């Protein structure tokens, strides 16, 4: 039908090597439908390359099963624990490889951008973001675990922000955060 709203599917990813959260939503016109969400967990005693492979395999399965149009991932930031951020970066790489293989465009957001898009306040508390995610998606409960809720919030952020304002996922040394041409395609 000519008047049916456009449906776009977005997978949000909160990367981590112990727990990677994922959330898949459809944006249909101005409303959202939850498709699936959960986490990919790896065991700490498992060899690290095997943990990355498990993340990669599950992301491949999710992309093949749900065929997202776009992926939204959290931009990495350097905290106090550099060892953790390096492992998280490697897990993020395992995720991005599958998006690249499937031809899914990837966009990234800082935690502050997600907070702003979900609550209207860039320094909102985690609980506020979770409650708004629940409300926006019309869920009965806050999604659990937190990593899945974060992934859903990332998907909503891309859907609400639109491609014109989203940052394409890049390596910091490759182009810098804003060293690429912004898309001018309007909102999703």
Description:
The model is unreliable at 173-188 (pLDDT under 50). The protein has 188 residues and is of the alpha/beta class. The longest helix has 21 residues, at 82-102. It has one domain: Nucleotidyltransferase, domain 5, CATH 3.30.420.10. Strands 3-2-1-4-5-6 form a six-stranded mixed β-sheet. Helices cover 41% and strands 22% of the residues.
Distance between the termini: 19 Å
The number of E-state strands comes to 6
Q: Would you give the CATH topology?
A: Nucleotidyltransferase, domain 5
Q: What is the CA-atom radius of gyration, in angstroms?
A: 16 Å
Low-confidence stretches: 173-188
Q: What structural class do the secondary elements suggest?
A: alpha/beta
Spatial strand arrangement across the major sheet:
3-2-1-4-5-6
Q: What is the class in the CATH system?
A: Alpha Beta
Q: Quickly give the CATH architecture.
A: 2-Layer Sandwich
Domains counted in the coordinates: how many? 1
Count up the helices: 5
Average pLDDT score: 87
**CATH homologous superfamily heading:** Ribonuclease H-like superfamily/Ribonuclease H
Instruction: Please give the largest β-sheet.
Output: 6 strands, mixed
SSE sequence, one letter per element: EEEHEHEHHHE
Determine the fraction of residues in helical runs and give it as a percent range. Answer: 40-55%
**What share of residues are in beta strands?**
15-25%
Backbone shape: globular
């Amino acid at each position: 039908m000519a008047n049916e709203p456009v449906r776009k599917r977005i997978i949000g990813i909160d990367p981590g090597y112990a727990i990677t959260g994922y959330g898949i939503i459809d944006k249909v016109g101005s409303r959202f439908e939850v498709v699936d969400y959960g986490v990919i967990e790896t065991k700490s005693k498992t060899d690290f390359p095997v943990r990355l492979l498990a993340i990669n395999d599950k992301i491949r399965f999710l992309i093949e099963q749900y065929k997202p149009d776009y992926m939204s991932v959290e931009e990495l930031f350097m905290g106090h624990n550099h060892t953790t951020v390096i492992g998280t970066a490697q897990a993020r790489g395992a995720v991005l490889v599958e998006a690249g293989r499937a031809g899914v465009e990837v966009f990234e957001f800082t935690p502050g951008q997600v907070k702003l898009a979900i609550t209207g306040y860039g320094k909102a508390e985690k609980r506020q973001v979770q409650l708004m995610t629940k409300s926006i998606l019309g869920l009965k409960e806050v999604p659990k675990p937190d990593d899945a809720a974060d992934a859903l919030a990332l998907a909503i952020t891309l859907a609400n922000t639109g491609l014109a304002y989203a940052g394409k996922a890049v390596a910091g040394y490759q182009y810098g955060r804003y060293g690429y041409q912004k898309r001018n395609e309007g909102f999703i």
